[in-house]
Amino acid sequence: MRLAGLAVSVAFGAGLTLSAQAAGADEKFEKALLKLDPSARLEQLCDYTALKQIRADDKNFRPDRAVANAMAEPQVRQDTVEAKAGAFRSRKKWYTLTYSCTATPDHLKVVSFTYAVGPEIPETKWAGYGLWD
What 3-state DSSP class applies to 73? Predict the structure, then answer.
Protein backbone atom coordinates (compact mmCIF):
# COMPACT_ATOMS: atom_id res chain seq x y z
CA MET A 1 0.00 0.00 0.00
CA ARG A 2 1.38 3.37 -0.93
CA LEU A 3 0.84 5.96 1.74
CA ALA A 4 0.22 9.57 0.97
CA GLY A 5 0.01 12.37 3.42
CA LEU A 6 1.94 14.06 6.12
CA ALA A 7 5.49 12.97 6.83
CA VAL A 8 7.34 14.36 9.80
CA SER A 9 10.77 13.64 11.17
CA VAL A 10 11.61 14.37 14.76
CA ALA A 11 14.97 13.66 16.37
CA PHE A 12 15.77 14.34 19.98
CA GLY A 13 18.96 14.88 21.86
CA ALA A 14 20.56 16.44 24.92
CA GLY A 15 18.03 15.04 27.36
CA LEU A 16 14.89 16.33 25.65
CA THR A 17 12.64 13.53 24.52
CA LEU A 18 9.10 13.46 23.25
CA SER A 19 8.21 10.61 25.59
CA ALA A 20 9.46 12.61 28.56
CA GLN A 21 7.11 15.42 27.61
CA ALA A 22 4.19 13.10 26.92
CA ALA A 23 4.73 10.62 29.73
CA GLY A 24 5.75 13.40 32.13
CA ALA A 25 2.36 14.99 31.55
CA ASP A 26 0.72 11.61 32.03
CA GLU A 27 2.20 9.89 35.07
CA LYS A 28 -0.33 7.07 34.81
CA PHE A 29 1.04 6.16 31.40
CA GLU A 30 4.61 6.10 32.70
CA LYS A 31 3.61 3.92 35.66
CA ALA A 32 1.76 1.57 33.33
CA LEU A 33 4.84 1.29 31.11
CA LEU A 34 6.92 0.14 34.05
CA LYS A 35 4.54 -2.80 34.58
CA LEU A 36 5.05 -4.12 31.03
CA ASP A 37 7.79 -6.42 29.79
CA PRO A 38 10.37 -4.51 27.71
CA SER A 39 9.10 -5.63 24.28
CA ALA A 40 5.49 -4.68 25.04
CA ARG A 41 6.73 -1.45 26.63
CA LEU A 42 8.56 -0.47 23.45
CA GLU A 43 5.52 -0.86 21.21
CA GLN A 44 3.21 0.91 23.66
CA LEU A 45 5.66 3.79 24.04
CA CYS A 46 5.95 4.16 20.27
CA ASP A 47 2.17 3.97 19.71
CA TYR A 48 1.68 6.59 22.42
CA THR A 49 4.34 8.79 20.84
CA ALA A 50 2.53 8.51 17.50
CA LEU A 51 -0.70 9.71 19.11
CA LYS A 52 0.96 12.66 20.78
CA GLN A 53 2.95 13.68 17.72
CA ILE A 54 0.01 13.45 15.30
CA ARG A 55 -2.15 15.46 17.69
CA ALA A 56 0.54 18.13 18.06
CA ASP A 57 1.30 18.36 14.33
CA ASP A 58 -2.19 18.41 12.82
CA LYS A 59 -5.14 19.88 14.69
CA ASN A 60 -7.52 18.21 12.20
CA PHE A 61 -6.73 14.90 13.89
CA ARG A 62 -7.69 14.00 17.45
CA PRO A 63 -6.17 10.51 17.73
CA ASP A 64 -7.23 8.34 20.63
CA ARG A 65 -5.85 4.94 19.52
CA ALA A 66 -2.81 3.79 17.57
CA VAL A 67 -1.77 0.26 16.67
CA ALA A 68 1.50 -0.65 15.03
CA ASN A 69 0.17 -4.01 13.83
CA ALA A 70 -3.14 -3.13 12.16
CA MET A 71 -2.43 -4.65 8.74
CA ALA A 72 0.91 -6.40 9.34
CA GLU A 73 3.26 -7.09 12.22
CA PRO A 74 5.83 -4.35 12.84
CA GLN A 75 9.54 -5.10 12.61
CA VAL A 76 11.13 -4.86 16.05
CA ARG A 77 14.91 -4.82 16.37
CA GLN A 78 16.41 -4.14 19.79
CA ASP A 79 15.18 -0.65 20.64
CA THR A 80 13.49 0.19 17.31
CA VAL A 81 9.98 -0.42 15.97
CA GLU A 82 9.35 -0.10 12.22
CA ALA A 83 5.57 -0.04 11.75
CA LYS A 84 4.86 -0.12 8.02
CA ALA A 85 1.18 -1.10 8.25
CA GLY A 86 -0.20 0.50 11.39
CA ALA A 87 -3.28 2.60 11.96
CA PHE A 88 -4.63 5.29 14.24
CA ARG A 89 -8.18 6.33 15.10
CA SER A 90 -9.30 9.93 15.07
CA ARG A 91 -12.87 11.16 15.40
CA LYS A 92 -14.23 7.62 14.94
CA LYS A 93 -12.32 7.05 11.69
CA TRP A 94 -9.19 4.95 11.13
CA TYR A 95 -6.20 6.08 9.05
CA THR A 96 -3.13 4.23 7.87
CA LEU A 97 0.08 5.00 9.71
CA THR A 98 3.72 4.17 9.26
CA TYR A 99 6.41 5.04 11.75
CA SER A 100 9.95 4.41 12.82
CA CYS A 101 10.58 4.75 16.52
CA THR A 102 13.78 4.24 18.47
CA ALA A 103 13.82 4.28 22.26
CA THR A 104 16.41 4.16 25.00
CA PRO A 105 17.47 0.61 26.01
CA ASP A 106 15.00 0.63 28.94
CA HIS A 107 12.19 1.52 26.49
CA LEU A 108 11.03 4.45 28.59
CA LYS A 109 12.06 7.38 26.37
CA VAL A 110 11.96 7.95 22.62
CA VAL A 111 15.21 9.16 21.05
CA SER A 112 14.01 9.36 17.43
CA PHE A 113 10.62 9.18 15.77
CA THR A 114 9.41 9.66 12.20
CA TYR A 115 5.96 8.97 10.83
CA ALA A 116 3.64 9.32 7.87
CA VAL A 117 -0.13 9.51 7.92
CA GLY A 118 -1.87 7.77 5.05
CA PRO A 119 -5.40 7.63 3.75
CA GLU A 120 -8.54 6.81 5.70
CA ILE A 121 -9.26 3.10 6.04
CA PRO A 122 -12.77 2.24 4.80
CA GLU A 123 -15.06 1.00 7.57
CA THR A 124 -15.72 -2.16 5.56
CA LYS A 125 -12.08 -3.19 6.21
CA TRP A 126 -11.98 -2.47 9.96
CA ALA A 127 -13.08 -5.92 11.14
CA GLY A 128 -10.54 -7.66 8.91
CA TYR A 129 -7.76 -5.58 10.46
CA GLY A 130 -9.03 -5.99 14.03
CA LEU A 131 -9.95 -2.32 14.29
CA TRP A 132 -12.98 -1.17 16.23
CA ASP A 133 -15.33 1.79 16.47
Answer: coil
Among residues 11, 121, 18, which one has the least CA distance to residue 71?
121
Query: Tens-digit pLDDT profile for the chain (133 aa)?
Result: 323 333 333 333 323 334 444 445 578 888 889 999 988 999 999 999 999 999 999 999 999 999 999 999 999 999 999 999 999 999 999 999 999 999 999 999 999 999 999 999 999 999 999 998 8
Based on the number of CB atoms within 10 Å of its own CB, is 36 exposed (0-12), middle (13-18) or buried (19 or more)?
Answer: middle
| Contact (CB, 8 A) for 45 and 19 | yes
Could you write out the DSSP letters of every residue in 25-44? H-HHHHHHHHTS-HHHHHHH
Triad 11, 51, 85: Cα angle to 5°: 85
Report how far residue 13's alpha carbon sits from residue 11's, in angstroms, rounded to the nearest whole number.
7
Instruction: Please give the model's pTM, rounded to 2 decimal places.
Output: 0.79
In the chain, domain spans = 7-129
What residues contact 127, with CB distance under 8 A and at least 6 apart? none
